[in-house]
Request: fold
Amino acid sequence: MITLFQPPPGFGAANPSPFCIKLEVLLKMADVDYKTQLEGNPRNGPNGKIPYIKDKGTALGDSDRIQLYLESEYNVEFFEGLNANQKAQSLAFIRLADEHLYWVVIYSRWMEDKNWRIIKKRFFGKMPLILRMFVPNMLRKGVRKSMTGHGIGRHDRATIYAMGAEDLTAIADFIADRDFAFGSTPTAVDAALYGQLSAIIDAPFDTPLKRAALSHDTLSAYCKRMRARYFPNLGDVA
Ligand SMILES: N[C@@H](CCC(=O)N[C@@H](CS)C(=O)NCC(=O)O)C(=O)O
Reply:
C-alpha cells in the first residue's frame, strides 16, 4: 500500500500545503489504496519537500512525478477521454498553478507580516524556544531568496498580486461554466488547480490574492465542488 507523507489538515483546507492537497486528490482520483503518515519536515522527503510517498520500498517526491508513477505503475488514466490539445492545455494550467500561482500564495503567507505571524505560530510554535529564536527567521530568509531566484520576488507587492489575479482570471475563464476543467469528470488538472485555489480561498489569510479569487463566483463554486467530492468529511479545519 502507498504511504503518503504530509502534515495534518490546516488553514481551513485538507492540508496547509497546496501540493499535498493536489497529491491527495490525485490519489483519490486514482482510486488506489493509500494511508497517510504525518510528516511536517520537508527535509525528510527524497527531494527535501513535501508531499512524498513511499511505495514498494522506495520513496518518491514531487506531486508531478508521483502522478506519472501512478500512471505507469498502477495504470491510472488521469486524462481519460481527452485529446492531445486538451492534454496540452492541462499541462499548461498545471504549470501555471504549480510554478507561478503557488509563488504568489507563498508571498501572501510568508512575506506579509500579519500572515507570517500565523505561519510562524502554526509551523514553529512548538519548537524549543532557543531554536524558535532564529530558525523561523532563517527559513523566511530562505523563502525570500527562493522567490528572488524564481523571479517573482523581484517585483513589488502590487505587481505580485496583479500577477496572481491574472492567473486566477485565466483559471476562472478556463473552467468557465463547467463543473470541472473538462466537464463532469475531474482530471489531473483539477487536482493541481484545486490545490492552489483551496490554499487561497479556504485559508484564513485576508490578502488581495484571496479577494481576487473571491471576485470570481466560478472559483468559489469550483472549490466547494472539489471539496465535496474529495474531502466530504473534512468539516471545519483550524
Ligand atoms: N514540485 C513539488 C513542490 C512541493 C513543495 O514545494 N512543497 C513545499 C510545501 S507546499 C515544501 O516542501 N517546501 C519546503 C522547501 O521548499 O524547503 C511538488 O509538486 O510536490
